[in-house]
């Protein structure tokens, strides 16, 4: 009798030990996922919702508090046995492939295709995997996107060539400053200063470009239009700390870009004197569509998307462009942005429901054409030249467009709820 009780006691103890080990592994996976999707660019509302869904699958009581540079997590079997964790994250560029791969790992774990140890190893491998695309391709995409946006800003052939060169220059500065801590901290004003100086220099010797336009296009990848939009989305969904800090970071980036550009102009004009703006004939209409195709391909690289997702990125950007153009025949901003984003939001959510993939694969590339970063940049540039009223009006327009995009995404979720929160 005593022997049976002893055996049962050991079995119970062994089972409790296994349960504790399982809970530790599950908590470890949750923390690694938190870090990975935060550093892949997931906003607070998506990260917190997605993590809660996974916690429920693991039958854990958990709560998460996401910010752009950290995630606070409390995880346990119930609210009285939770442990608290603070994960310091390094905010990086959008990485759609990471979001997609983590989603696949979680799907396989839920379906019992893989166990906890395999899932944890897979997630660690994702975060340590080297870049899929080479640095020279990233730099080239900076230049091609700059040229593509010049056509959207009604530029000429000469503007497209000059902007492509300046975008390539920005890409090279961005890539080769990363290994150096203090140089990378100066990336934004340094790149803007070099681009501003180069634009005036090109305009002085080759007097057939609009140096304001090519400067903006050359820096377009660094302009935080997406950051402003995500911040507004976070604020509108009640994530006030994350939204406020992200908005502060985006506005600071705009100030740094504007300051660097003004400094570059000042240095160049002190050497060459005043340089007039030269407007040439716009590129033909057919080139806009070619530029759209090239831009979509480049965003696949810049957002580190899988090659298999390229079609969906094309579709998303095409919907945004077509929706904005058609709705613009009847309505002005911000309502045409609202309508275009609504189309992108619904399409992305349908894609998510059909494929079980993250809706972000379509949402982020689609809204990138509509974000108000260039308007905000023009706002501060106008203020630097003492044109205060124009600057204030442009800033107001940028905020209203960001609000319209946020509302469009929310309404899209209401009409067609996404299958995945990621």
TrEMBL record:
InterPro entries: ThrE-like_N, ThrE/Ser_Exporter, ThrE_2. Keywords: Membrane, Transmembrane, Transmembrane helix. The chain crosses the membrane at residues 136-154, 186-206, 212-235, 247-266, 286-303, 310-331, 337-354, 366-384, 396-416. Residues 1-23 are annotated as: Disordered. It is found in: Membrane. It holds the Pfam family ThrE_2. One of its GO terms (cellular component) is membrane. Belongs to the ThrE exporter (TC 2.A.79) family. PANTHER family: PHEROMONE-REGULATED MEMBRANE PROTEIN 10. This is Uncharacterized membrane protein YjjP (DUF1212 family). It comes from Marinicella litoralis.
């Amino acid at each position: 009798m005593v022997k049976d009780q002893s055996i049962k006691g050991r079995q119970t103890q062994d089972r409790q030990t296994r349960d504790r080990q399982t809970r530790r592994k599950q908590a470890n996976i949750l923390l690694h996922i938190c870090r990975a999707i935060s550093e892949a660019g997931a906003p607070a509302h998506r990260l917190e919702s997605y993590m809660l869904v996974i916690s429920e699958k693991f039958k854990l009581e958990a709560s998460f508090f996401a910010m752009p540079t950290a995630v606070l997590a409390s995880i346990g079997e119930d609210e009285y046995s939770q442990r608290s964790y603070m994960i310091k994250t390094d905010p990086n560029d959008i990485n759609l492939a990471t979001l997609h791969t983590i989603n696949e790992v979680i799907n396989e774990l839920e379906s019992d295709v893989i166990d906890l140890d395999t899932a944890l190893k897979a997630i660690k491998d994702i975060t340590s995997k080297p870049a899929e695309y080479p640095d020279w391709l990233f730099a080239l995409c900076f230049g091609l996107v700059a040229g593509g946006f010049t056509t959207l800003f009604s530029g000429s052939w000469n503007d497209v060539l000059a902007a492509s060169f300046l975008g390539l220059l920005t890409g090279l500065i961005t890539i080769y400053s990363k290994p150096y801590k203090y140089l990378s901290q100066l990336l934004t004003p340094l790149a803007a200063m070099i681009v501003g100086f180069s634009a005036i220099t090109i305009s002085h010797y080759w007097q057939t470009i609009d140096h304001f336009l090519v400067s903006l296009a050359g820096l377009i990848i660094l302009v935080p239009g997406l950051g402003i939009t995500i911040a507004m989305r976070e604020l509108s969904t009640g994530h006030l700390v994350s939204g406020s800090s992200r908005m502060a970071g985006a506005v600071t980036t705009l100030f740094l870009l504007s300051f660097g550009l003004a400094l570059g102009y000042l240095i160049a004009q002190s050497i060459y004197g005043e340089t007039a703006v030269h407007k040439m004939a716009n590129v033909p209409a057919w080139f806009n569509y070619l530029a759209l195709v090239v831009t979509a391909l480049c965003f696949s690289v810049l957002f580190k998307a899988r090659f298999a997702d390229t079609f969906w990125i094309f579709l998303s950007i095409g919907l945004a462009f077509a929706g904005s153009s058609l709705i613009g025949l009847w309505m002005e901003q911000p309502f045409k942005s609202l309508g275009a984003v609504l189309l992108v939001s619904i399409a992305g959510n349908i894609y998510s429901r059909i494929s079980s993939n993250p809706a972000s694969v379509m949402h982020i590339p689609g809204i990138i054409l509509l974000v108000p970063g260039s308007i905000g940049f023009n706002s501060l540039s106008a203020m630097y030249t003492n044109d205060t009223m124009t600057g204030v009006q442009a800033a107001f327009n940028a905020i209203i467009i960001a609000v319209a995009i946020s509302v469009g995404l929310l309404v899209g979720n209401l009409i067609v709820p996404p299958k995945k929160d990621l």
